[in-house]
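Thread: "does anyone have the structure for this chain?"

Original post by V.I.:
We have the sequence but no experimental structure in hand. Need at least a predicted one for the grant figures.
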Amino acid sequence: MNYRSKRLNGDTITPISIFHRLKGTKKFLLESSGAHDQKGRFSFIGVNPYKEIIGSKKNSTVINLTTGEEETIEQLPLEVVKEHTPNIDLPLPYAFYGGAIGYIGYDTIRQYEYIGEKLEDEIEMPDVHMMFYQDVIVFDHMKQKVTLLTMDLNGDREESILEERLVEMEEEIWTHEKPLKEEELHVSFQPSIQKSRFLEMVETAKRHIVEGDIFQVVLSQRMKASFEADPFTFYRKLRVANPSPYMYFIDFNDYIVLGASPESLIKTTGKEVITNPIAGTRPRGATEQEDAQLATELLADEKELAEHKMLVDLSRNDLGRVCEISSITIPKYMAIERYQHVMHIVSEVHGTLTDNYTGLDALISALPAGTVSGAPKIRAMQIINDLEDKKRGVYAGAVGYININGDLDLALAIRTMVIKGNNAYVQAGAGIVYDSDPESEYLETLNKARALLEVSKHDITH
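Reply from O.Q.:
Generated one for you, tokens below.
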């Protein structure tokens, strides 16, 4: 497979300026905080995908964006994505150098497990939407270098076309000056359900717990706002206010998905799989001493620890379906990780895929994360389906990439906003256990949403 690359000095440009200058449609930007560790070292930018796969239920549409040809087939969307992943390894030192970018929604699980009748689809988005790219820009923050990559994944590019595309990309970066917008954002979000209804949902969930149906369930609510601001300006403010391990801005043309997620749903490198359950939260302290005290309190909170241990067990079970049982380890267990505004208890569960499973199989096994569903997972999802009145969509699913060699890295879709038409949607949940206080759980959903909305001049009205 032919590809070409070119390295540029990146000391006078940024991923934001590169993204803003690139011409074309269906652009994406993937970033991570922590510019000098391996996770935060690289940012990835792309434009003009050559293929799209869009699917819901058991129907999938494959669109060749070069010719405009469409093919609709009766096949599970993730199976189609698997078939269209080239499985080509290139001698490049980047985790992503071409392939699929997009999301796998929470409701994709309906294709594999029965969790109840389908709910109202308020936003009207497919369960799976992946766009395939063969032109990618990699920004190396550590070395202050930019690498332009272009390849022939679609089978229709001669070497001369690849060389021309490199020239075009470089010209856009250096010559296509566009002033970045600076504006105050005035966005007022309203919950989609009444507070009294959410409190009832919590009480119902607690009855299920007392009756022994479940140990925990995560109930969520959606906030909606009229949105006429520039979405990329919102993202720029978000990445400064709430830097996170997974930051993304993906323009699908019909809608935009942007976010700053702290949590990985699944990551695979070759046959190695990692998932990192996060549960247990405290705000950051104003001083080092207060910060240390809050961390000590968090690790002594029996309720937080019990919830975290339950989620680690869920992750082990998820990986156990696709990995060698003897390979499953927990190299990081209940460690404190600090972010800009909060600290979390974090663990890492590792495993090695058996010969007959791929990274996408690991994704299917892990979807959705226990942190957004509950335990036992299937029964918890059935209760969610009974109590929530709308399809979750992107929220609680996954956002990220599938590299052309089959490796993938997908964030849990929390602290994520969907913008469609003139509306923006944010969703947040709270983990309900037997002694949950309904009022506190309601406020937790609002506080989690505020982590995303604090860049706006307005707040949630409730």
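V.I.: this helps a lot. The longest helix spans residues 302-320.
O.Q.: and The two ends are 55 Å apart (CA to CA).
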